[in-house]
Design goal:
Elements: E1 9-11, H1 12-19, H2 24-32, E2 36-38, E3 41-42, E4 49-51, E5 56-58, E6 61-62, E7 70-75, E8 104-105, E9 114-120, H3 123-130, E10 138-144, H4 152-158, E11 173-178, E12 181-186, H5 193-200, E13 205-213, E14 216-217, E15 225-227, H6 230-234
Parallel strand pairs: 9-13
Antiparallel strand pairs: 1-4, 2-3, 2-5, 5-6, 7-9, 7-15, 8-9, 10-12, 10-13, 11-12, 13-14
Helix pairs in contact: 1-2
Bound molecules: uracil (URA).
Uracil is lined by residues 109-110, 113, 192-195, 208.
Pfam families: PseudoU_synth_2
EC number: 5.4.99.-
Domain RNA-binding S4: 10-72
Length: 238
Amino acid sequence: MCKMWCRRLMRLDKYLCKSTDLTKSEAVEKIHRGEVSVNSETVFDESIQVHENNTILLKGNALTLRAFRYILMHKPAATICSNIDEVYPSLLNYLEIDKPSELHMAGRLDADTTGLVLITDDGRWSFNITSPTKSCKKVYRVTLLRDIKDDVAERFKVGVQLQGEVNPTRPAELEVISPKEVLLTITEGKFHQVKRMFAAVGNRVVKLHREQIGEIRLDVQQGEWRYLTEDEIVSFNQ
Ligand code: URA
C-alpha cells in the first residue's frame, strides 16, 4: 500500500526480525558473527539503517520483509490495549499469530470499554487513525447514569472544556437513542475522552462500546478478530 511513496527504513537488527523468525538477540548475534551482508558488504553493526531496496543476505540468502499486518478485533471488557499484561491481560493474547509483540493498537480503549480496536505494525497507517489532524471518526455507543439533557448535543457540537486540557474538544456529534443511551462520534482521542466529555456536562458513563472507526464497523463477536480487507486498509490513506 505505501510502496509508491515510502520505503520502510529501519535498523538492521529490526529488519532481520521482520524478515525471519529470529528474536532480536538472535539477530544481533548473527550480525556480530559476520553472517549478514548489506549490498554485498558484511556488516557488524546492528544499528545501521537499512531499507527494503537494499540487498540484505543472511548466510547468502536474501531476506524480504514480511508484509504489514492490519487486524480488526472486538475487545472484551477486562482486557487492556497494551503489549504487556498488567492487572488485566493484553488484547494481544487473543491473536494466535507470529510475533504479536511487534503489533500496536491504533487508538486505545479503557480496560472496561468494549468494541472495535484496530491493530497493526504499520506506524504510518495508525497515525492516520489516531492523529487529530486526520479527523478520523470514531463512533461510541454510550450508556449513561442519568437522562441526557436537551442541551448536550449543542454543547458537544461547539466543544466542551475538559479539565486539564488547553483547548476545548473538537466538534462532536450526538445521536440520542433513548434517554440513557446515545451514539457519540468524535474525531480525536484524548485520554478517557468520552467519559470526561459526559462528566463535563454533569453526567456519567456507565457502559462504553466503540462501534465504528472511519467507515469500518464491528462485525465479529467479542474476543474474535479478522484481517482487514485491502479496501478497508486503504480507506485510511488520505
Ligand atoms: N473514551 C473513553 O473515555 N474511554 C475509552 O475507552 C475510549 C474513549
